[in-house]
Amino acid sequence: MCNSQDSEYYCAFNKDSSVCNGDSGGGLFYQMNNQWYVYGIASFTDFDENGLGCPLKRPQYHTMVPNYLLWIKKAMEHAFSPYDKYSYFNYV
């Protein structure tokens, strides 16, 4: 079902639920040893046979958060003020 070989995205598939249009940015979570983790951020999905954006039995693609942990850590280490003339998030 998921044919993507792209290392930036994680392909999720669930026959009973789906991401929908407007869900972009939402998390794909998993629980391990009573601790919750975010693994993916909803990015895009296919349309169903009616052209609607909440397709069951279709792959959903999530940006892989672990690929960005270093960037997230660096960005969070830099405090910035809305009064600064530039953002520290532009260093990547």
From TrEMBL:
One of its GO terms (molecular function) is serine-type endopeptidase activity. Pfam families: Trypsin. It comes from Brachionus calyciflorus. Residues 6-72 form the Peptidase S1 domain. InterPro entries: CLIP_Serine_Protease, Peptidase_S1_PA, Peptidase_S1_PA_chymotrypsin, Trypsin_dom. It comes from the Eukaryota. This is Peptidase S1 domain-containing protein. One of its GO terms (biological process) is proteolysis.
